[in-house]
């Protein structure tokens, strides 16, 4: 029997994507001062292009495969991830261009602006992890547009009003994306979600594919944290610190997973969700981390907090606050992001000899977090309310976590059978 909402992709998604892409093209044509930022020399271009590709792998392959853990939602997990990523990146380039033009510059396009835009898109990918399987492609596109808009606005406020360094502002993407996604899950909560959905399951094959995505993220995360760092010395420090934090996360997540298991066994969900916790935390604190032991301590603590969050807090958030966080983005990105913010604060105060400057930094640093959380929560609520509009035709409960509502699954199975 044909899925009830299959025609909605034709009547909603196709016009939305065509109009959206046409609007993107028109905007790029209208701004005739678009400049391709030429690199100073070929070596610089080659080095930055490699880092750009690393970030590309993280956004497309890493997050894409990480979203395939559900048994009957692999096509949607990876396919919708690609769709959201490219739409969000194009939109972020435009918003960053407007910001540059408003500040008296020009609407520029370069590898650096593309990387900046992809990191904004990563924030959107974090957010949609919280509603994975419970929304259709039309809703995800709308969510990504609004989330990127809110995140770019948040970075502009931090850089303009609080005078935060641009790198520090953009690395708050983990905190912004996690709390934005948490508000989405709260607003879009479905009655009966306290009991697991029938199709909200995973098996050996989907777990392996999802673990592959986590491994890709783990491998390329040092580039993600260091790509926008200008100083070669600082870039090396960030790369080394990120790797050590990630290594500490793997060891610690494995240990905590075994300790928290009634049977004393490793849990794949713990491993794939928490091995990045150290990289997330040290990325937020990258401006203040200079010593290897600092990075490793942050990675160790982040893995403990993240693993405990996945094991216990995720279910508590569902039962107590009606937040059905599918991918556990709060534990995977939110808590490590907050830990990285706290580590940044403590390390900066420790290295500051002037108490007046230390107090001033603490005040501005606290304002950075409060503004980010306030913006993410408010934008998440607004986006969630708009996403509940019946025009988007939210999938029914029996269509959640199921590719058949959006993909021609049966055709692929038949072709595969014939080839055999």
From TrEMBL:
Q: Which GO terms describe its cellular component?
A: plasma membrane
Key word 4Fe-4S present? no
Domain (Ammonium transporter AmtB-like): residue spans on this chain: 23-387
- Membrane-traversing stretches: 12-31, 55-75, 82-102, 140-158, 164-188, 208-224, 236-256, 268-289, 295-314, 326-347, 359-386
Instruction: Spell out the subcellular localization from the entry.
Output: Membrane
Q: Does the keyword Membrane apply?
A: yes
Q: List, alphabetically, the InterPro entries matched.
A: Ammonium/urea_transptr, NH4_transpt_AmtB-like_dom, RhesusRHD
Primary localization: membrane
Record's bilayer topology term = Multi-pass membrane protein
Which keywords does this chain's UniProt record carry?
Membrane, Transmembrane, Transmembrane helix
> Do you know which Pfam families this protein is assigned to?
Ammonium_transp
Annotated Gene3D superfamilies: Ammonium transporter AmtB like domains
GO molecular function, one example? ammonium channel activity
Q: Which GO terms describe its biological process?
A: ammonium homeostasis
Protein family per UniProt: Belongs to the ammonium transporter (TC 2.A.49) family. Rh subfamily.
What does the function comment of this entry state? Functions as an ammonia transporter. May play a role in the elimination of ammonia in the gill.
* Name of the protein: Rh blood group, D antigen isoform X1
Say which species the protein is native to: Betta splendens (Siamese fighting fish)
